Amino acid sequence: MDDNALKGLAARVIDLERDALDALHARIDDSFVEACRLLLACRGRVVVTGMGKSGHVAGKIAATLASTGTPAFFVHPGEASHGDLGMITREDVVLAISSSGETQEVVTILPLIKRLGVPLISMTGKPASTMASLADVHLDISVAQEACPLNLAPTASTTVTMVLGDALAVALLEARGFTEEDFARSHPGGALGRRLLLKVADLMHTGDDIPMVAADTPLDEALLEVTRKRMGMTVVTDPEGRASGIFTDGDLRRVLESDVDIHAVRVADVMTKGGRRIGRDALAAEAVHRMEAHAITSLLVEDGEGQVCGVVHLHDLLRAGAA
């Protein structure tokens, strides 16, 4: 088989699966709305089950639901018949998946689920199947043809199921008002979680760690403070002790280029007035964005009353994974 033939096979699979998704799009109806209502009303967990390839897809759907604000977990239908059915409570909703709607391991446990009074949503490719008839809500995942040339291996049907699961998860996410911060709480170990949870207050330097000099300090003495605190800058305070400006390495370069006597000039005469600032409750990622936008390496941090309470440096943000 030559290269073009292989490319043609790939294109055929993509075309068939795209057609299957187009057909699914046309079937998003009141049944989808009813399923969403049942899931939103659930006071327990969404229990997702399926066998074989449908089981793999069910596991992914459960994980997606759980990470987007709908508590969910996967139960293997075979194990459910041997004790794991005890995981399901009357407060839950069951989402059962089977292309045929007749998968024995799933059908076996459905009467017990119904006896508990647990709402049942089924996803099948056969609206007249046993699973569809037992369900409170049935979602049609039928496909005209699998992408497999033998029309046997689950391909287009698993794609349709996965996409419908994503549609449920995202619809519920929007309905619950799920935010980026909510998402980060369920992903604390990843880079995204760090970016969305870390705040400036978690990384800023405070108290004696803040480089700080009075406005009338000679520049050469101010440079000693810059060196001691190793942040490439110092805060400059007015007579009332409030931050009136900032002196940085960049300011020093400008001073040296102008032939100013660093032993004779006051730091207030050559500082950058005001200084870039950020709130202590701002996300650390926002601090990185501001520093990059203004080509600077530090920001003054303000408390809720507009007073400077710390300094945050780019190196600290990068080490913490906020970028």
Query: Beta-sheet strand percentage?
Result: 15-25%
The helix/strand class is alpha/beta
How are helices and strands ordered from N to C? HHEHEHEHEHEHHHHEHEEHHEEHEEH
Roughly how many Å apart are the termini? 47 Å
The unreliable regions are none
**Which of globular, elongated, flat, extended, rod-shaped describes the shape?**
elongated
Main β-sheet description: 5 strands, parallel
Strand order of the largest sheet: 2-1-3-4-5
Q: Please, what is the average pLDDT? A: 90
Which range best describes the helical content: under 10%, 10-25%, 25-40%, 40-55%, 55-70% or over 70%?
Answer: 40-55%
Instruction: Count all strands and give the number.
Output: 12
**Helix count?**
15
Rg (CA only): 30 Å
Description:
- The two termini are 47 Å apart.
- The strands form three sheets. The chain has a five-stranded parallel beta sheet, with helices on both faces. A four-stranded mixed beta sheet has the order 6-7-8-9.
- Helices cover 47% and strands 16% of the residues.
- The chain has 323 residues and is α/β, with parallel strands linked by helices.
- The chain has helices spanning 3-26, 30-41, 53-67, 77-80, 104-116, 130-134, 156-176, 180-185, 191-197, 200-203, 219-229, 249-257, 267-270, 284-294, 314-319, and strands at residues 46-50, 72-74, 93-98, 120-124, 137-140, 212-214, 233-237, 243-248, 272-273, 277-279, 298-302, 308-313.
- The protein is built from 15 helices and twelve strands.
